[in-house]
Amino acid sequence: MSVTLDLYLASTSPRRRDLLLAAGLRFALCEPGPEYETGAIGEHDSEAGDPAAHAVARARRKGLGARPPLPTVPVLAVDTVVDLDGKELGKPRDRGGAERMLRSLFGRCHRVHTAHSLSLPAIGWHAERLASATVYCEAPPDAELRRYLDSDQWLGKAGSYGLQDPAQSFLVLQDGAFDTVVGLHVAAVRELLAAAGRRQ
After folding, report:
1. Is 152 a catalytic residue?
2. Which residues on neighbouring strands pair with residue 155, listed in sequence order?
3. Where are the alpha helices (DSSP H) in 115-185?
4. Rounded distance, CA 37 to CA 47, Å?
5. Could you give phi then psi for residue 175, rounded to 5 degrees?
6. What DSSP state is assigned to residue 89?
7. Does domain 7-195 have CATH number 3.90.950.10?
8. Which of 23, 43, 51, 110 could form an SS bridge with 81, CB 3.0 to 4.6 Å?
9. Of the residues 6, 18, 45, 79, which is catalytic?
């Protein structure tokens, strides 16, 4: 007997897959559309302008550009940005870049915005939700920072960290939901599915 899907996830992120699995949502993967406009910056750079607006635009491009096998199943795309005083922090290129980025966060609060885009290709329906959270970054001893950098858990992550990473204890959620910072706010996904007329 085939399983009825709640959604297609247009993402390559294992963390987002884990969050959906933990939430009990039934999904399959599909290839996301292009994250950036042609000729725009790449994932390792910081795009000028409002970080939250960038997250929304990228999630929309990834979702609407996806090609799901079944157009009657909703397509979810997500994008997460780290916002330090209105400036986006991208993904580090290397260990040195990760260290510089983390040190820029020490002793300060920053915002994390996760944008969710859900579309139903069969009827041309589309909706979005933005979730935001505040994270405080303590200034850890150099030895702890080195251990985190040595762990490579910062690889491929906006702002050079994951709040869920076991190798760090210097990042503290101040406001908002933990899963927003990890990269997918389950409550926002459920709201979107409800708006699309889907029960979970």
Report:
1. no
2. none
3. 142-151, 178-182
4. 12
5. -155, 145
6. E
7. yes
8. 51
9. 79
